[in-house]
Design goal:
By secondary structure, the chain is an alpha/beta fold. It folds into two domains: 268 residues, Aldehyde Dehydrogenase, Chain A, domain 1 (3-Layer(aba) Sandwich); 185 residues, Aldehyde Dehydrogenase, Chain A, domain 2, CATH 3.40.309. The protein is 40% helix and 22% strand. The strands form six sheets. Strands 14-15-16-13-12-18-19 form a seven-stranded mixed β-sheet, sandwiched between helices. Helix 2 packs across helix 6, helix 3 crosses helix 4 and helix 7 runs parallel beside helix 8. The radius of gyration is 23 Å and the shape is globular. The structure holds adenosine-5'-diphosphate. Adenosine-5'-diphosphate binds next to helix 7 and helix 8.
């Protein structure tokens, strides 16, 4: 843990495991409510001097952290692969993506503009200033264990807020590595604090109820996000929530089915499907279903699961046993209710894979609305294909979910692309594009996928208050 500029390495600890091998790879401090409270107090004590620094000073520190992160890209990626499981190449990409947020918000720090507004009274002037919201508590997930931290810390620190972060209990080592970078970059003591804990609940209670915390930013499941938002409501804390998704991937029959199937095979199996923007229902117009499935199956059959440190493996393990059980339950349920299994469909246990949490890359077709996989977020390597006939129907089916994070559309028809883009109730839409994300672009969901946006110009607004001055002259 890193509180008030000091590393705490004694006291009770908890183990961290490699999900590919089951090996213990480290021990980290098991923080308590007392630690969370101390971290919040340290952030409070550091706030007035941190927000009084110029934007240029805050920006310089973020630039330095960006440089340090890139210079350690390989070491950080190896740590991420050991702790979280994704293939090393994907970890390298994530570290770059994480560093992008530090760079983007180093730049945005200097663009926190206010405004003057004309008044109806000749003796009056209105001045609007943006000010940091104060102490920010952040809770981050294990699936993107470095970039989800910089996506919150970057804008919070740029805005002049001080922070306390609790990472996921399965990936605290990546969080520690990020905070070592912040320390080396020279952020003052108390500005960024880290509390690791094996049980998130007691820490969550402190974050949601401590009156000094003015903002809670969370990435994780919808259930936990709702719980934290409710617990923060009595004090009307500001909240940002980046929650679950259930992305539709629509392939119209004017699209090239081979190109679209390649797109699905790339985006669906990224991070072993453990992404909130992972396609969960793949709607394919019936006329091109056959060539689409043929390409998808052959691509999926060629994917090899295993330890992400071996470059031959493109699919890493799931994070834990519970994740394997959930995925398997959805696959069994779909098959029982009439889905056709085209590839995969079982846990992998041969060639040493039994030590980790591996599930075979799977393709199901004829998936229908009565199946769990059609409604529940999967977070696993399962491509669930739903044939459709008509444009209006598919838009209604795509929107028929409580989630609204990401969606994907493949079509060569511009009018149809625009119509679909406008009608889908999702915050992020890839049109013939499987990677509609960037530090420069606003990321976030509608409906029960969340509140607020991360990255982009909007990202820093989440950490700012608007203050109005009415001046009589
Ligand atoms: P997942 O199911 O994908 O693990 P979670 O929403 O459980 O997603 O976890 C995301 C983050 O939320 C993690 O850092 C986890 O420790 C934290 N978390 C889970 N439950 C709580 C809680 N009751 N209070 C605070 N944080 C929590």
């Amino acid at each position: 843990m890193y509180i008030n500029g000091e590393w705490l390495t004694d006291g009770p600890m908890f183990p961290v495991f490699n999900p590919a091998t089951g090996e213990e790879i480290g021990q980290v401090p098991d923080g308590t409510q007392h630690d969370a409270t101390r971290a919040i107090e340290a952030a409070e004590a550091a706030l007035s001097s941190w927000k009084a620094e110029t934007a240029y000073t805050r920006s310089d520190l973020l630039y330095r952290a960006h440089q340090l992160m890139l210079s350690q890209q390989r070491e950080l990626a190896e740590l991420m692969t050991r702790e979280q499981g994704k293939p090393l190449k994907a970890s390298m990409n994530e570290v770059k993506y994480a560093a992008d947020f530090l760079l983007w918000f180093a730049e945005e720090a200097k663009r926190v503009y206010g405004e003057t507004i004309p008044s109806a009274r000749s003796d009056q002037r209105f001045l609007v200033q943006k000010q940091p919201i104060g102490v920010v508590a952040a809770v981050t997930p294990w699936n993107y264990p470095i970039s989800m931290l910089t996506r919150k810390l970057g804008p919070a620190l740029a805005a002049g807020c001080t922070t306390v972060l609790k990472p996921a209990e399965s990936t605290p080592l990546c969080a520690i590595a990020v905070f070592k970078i912040l320390e080396e970059a020279g952020f003052p003591a108390g500005v960024a604090n880290l509390v690791t804990a094996s049980d998130p609940k007691p820490i969550g209670v402190v974050f949601c109820t401590h009156p000094v915390v003015r903002k809670l930013t969370f990435t994780g499941s919808t259930a936990v996000g709702k719980h934290l938002a409710q617990a923060s409501a009595p004090q009307l804390k500001r909240v940002s929530m980046e929650l679950g998704g259930h992305a539709p991937f629509i392939v119209y029959d004017d699209a090239d089915p081979v190109h679209a199937a390649k797109g699905v095979s790339l985006v669906k199996f990224l991070n072993t499907g453990q992404a909130c923007i992972s396609p969960n229902r793949i709607f394919v117009q019936r006329r091109i279903l056959e060539p689409f499935l043929e390409t998808l199956k052959s691509r999926v059959d060629a994917l090899r699961a295993g330890d992400g440190m071996d470059p031959a493996n493109s699919i890493g393990p799931l994070i834990n046993e519970a994740a394997v059980d959930k995925v398997d339950r959805q696959v069994r349920d779909a098959i029982d209710k009439g889905a056709t299994l085209l590839a995969g469909g079982a846990r992998l246990t041969d060639s040493g894979l039994d030590k980790g949490c591996f599930y075979d890359a799977t393709v199901l077709t004829n998936v229908s609305p009565d199946m769990l996989i059609y409604r529940e977020e999967t977070f696993g390597p399962i491509a669930a294909v739903v044939p459709f006939d008509d444009e209006d129907d598919v838009i209604a089916m795509a929107n028929d979910t409580r989630y609204g994070l990401a969606a994907y559309v493949y079509t060569q028809n511009l009018a149809r692309a625009l119509r679909t883009f406008e009608q889908l109730q999702f915050g992020i839409i890839g049109i013939n594009d499987i990677n509609p994300t960037s530090a420069a672009a606003p990321f976030g969901g509608m409906k029960e996928s969340g509140l607020g946006r991360e990255g982009a110009r909007e990202g820093i607004e989440e950490y700012l208050e608007t203050k109005l001055g009415g001046f009589s002259i």
